[in-house]
Amino acid sequence: MESNENFSVDEDSAKSPEEKLEVKNEEKPKKKTVDVLKGIILVGIGLVVLILGFFLYKKRSEGPKIVFILPIVIGIVLLITGSAIISFNVTMEKLRKAAEEKAVAELKKAAADKTLEVK
User: Is the separation of the CB atoms in 42 and 88 below 8 Å?
Assistant: First the structure.
């Protein structure tokens, strides 16, 4: 009867599955990804290059035309690239969040049914 001395309950095993999920969700920090910041920087640089290109084109003097059009083209390419990076990362974040919510809902349903199905 002295076997009860070493008996202890782990706090994590005593929690319900919903409580475990809530703790894991709280541990993640909420912040923008680095890729979104890179996209914002690219858009800003693209705007600056585009504006400078327009000023250069208006003040042009002798010289090949490509030299004056090139900054405008580079600015447009940077704008498109930066906005594509931002929209891609925002879309991926939404998809990631939706998949996470779906997985949590499935885990809660499985915890309620007390069974897990292997797909």
Answer: no
- Give 102-105 contacts, CB < 8 A, sequence gap 24+: 104/21, 104/25
Check whether 9 has a pLDDT greater than 60: no
For the full predicted model, state whether its pTM sits above 0.70. Answer: no
How many Å apart are CA 12 and CA 20, to the nearest integer? Answer: 7
Q: What is the DSSP string of 68-97?
A: HHHHHHHHHHHHHHHHHHHHHHHHHHHHHH
Using N-to-C axis directions, what is the helix angle for 65-113 and 34-58, rounded to 10°?
160
Distance CA 24, CA 65 (A): 59
